[in-house]
Design a protein that fits this description.
mainly beta, 13-stranded antiparallel beta sheet, 2 helices
Length: about 290
């Protein structure tokens, strides 16, 4: 065997070995899932925190941190016999939502990585229908997080289907909304979350996510009032910086949506939907891998 053939083979083995030796990481950016995985029997723990009060109120309430907040707590478990398979559980107090599901990594190549994620969500609060939406719902989400690697930049696309939404029983063509006739409830909806991550160094990176307003939610439909001005359904966003150290990842963010689960972020109508862009608030994620 010639040297010219040995060199490519050695490089291929080196790259292959590097991919197979990748360490575990919790499959979460800000709110969107990533195509990462927990390997072997590793366990990942995530603590999320979203402040409700907007930063724009300035220092009188510590830029929103004196106000109410929604903390969430979740686990991801690696299942060693099934490569790339993870079990997920997460709980957040907004409507006392519990999610449980799995994620299976589908591909892990040099320029692309993808997975499929299926979750069931249950809001444990008493089911109530109002003219602003329904709470106490349950349903499922199906997502296919797909990441494209372009040097230090990672583009993430997350096509998602949510089976049940807050406004499924409401006719939003009327303002205020009216209830749809029995049997005419809206079905689930599709949405496409978009994320960007850029690594400045091995430890520091910037993150941004965009959650489009689903087309069936009219922007003209009034869902709230801030400083005397009415507003309708909005596009959602989140952006921040992340610091990664040994088995920990800390992410500080600003966002106009206080939700964290797939059905809260991508349905567009959870809690009246995202606020106007100028009414963003702070939040953070802390991730630990064991």
């Amino acid at each position: 065997m010639t040297v010219s053939r040995l060199i490519p083979m050695a490089l291929a083995l080196t790259i292959g070995g590097g991919l197979s030796a990748q360490s575990s990481d919790y499959p979460l950016a800000i709110n969107l899932p990533t195509a990462e995985r927990m390997q072997y029997w590793d366990i990942g723990v995530a603590f999320t925190h979203r402040f409700v009060t907007p930063v724009k109120d300035h220092g009188k309430d510590l830029f929103g941190m004196d106000g109410y907040a929604y903390p969430g707590f979740g686990f991801v478990f690696g299942i060693k016999p099934i490569k790339g398979f993870n079990v997920l559980i997460y709980r957040t107090p907004d409507n006392k939502t519990l999610t449980f599901g799995f994620q299976q990594q589908l591909a892990d190549a040099e320029y692309i990585r993808s997975a499929v994620r299926v979750e069931r969500f249950d809001e444990a609060v008493t089911q109530t229908s109002t003219l602003s939406g329904e709470i106490g719902i349950s349903g499922a989400t199906v997502q296919v997080p797909t990441e494209f690697f372009m040097g230090d930049l990672i583009l993430t696309l997350v096509p998602s289907y949510v089976t049940a939404t807050t406004t499924r029983k409401l006719d939003l063509t009327t303002n205020p909304a009216t209830f749809l006739p029995a049997g005419k409830e809206k079905k689930g909806l599709f949405n496409l979350g978009v994320g960007l991550r850029y690594g400045f160094t091995e430890k520091f990176s910037a993150m941004a996510e965009y959650y489009p307003r689903p087309s069936r939610l009219p922007k003209e439909h009034i869902v709230g009032t801030i400083n005397g001005e009415d507003y309708g359904y909005q596009n959602g966003f989140a952006a921040g910086v992340s610091y990664k150290t040994f088995k920990h990842r800390f992410t500080l963010i600003g966002t106009n949506t206080i939700g964290t689960t797939a059905n809260q972020v991508l349905s567009g109508d959870h809690g009246g939907g995202p606020r106007p862009s100028g009414q963003w608030s702070l939040g953070f994620n802390v991730v630990r891998v064991f």
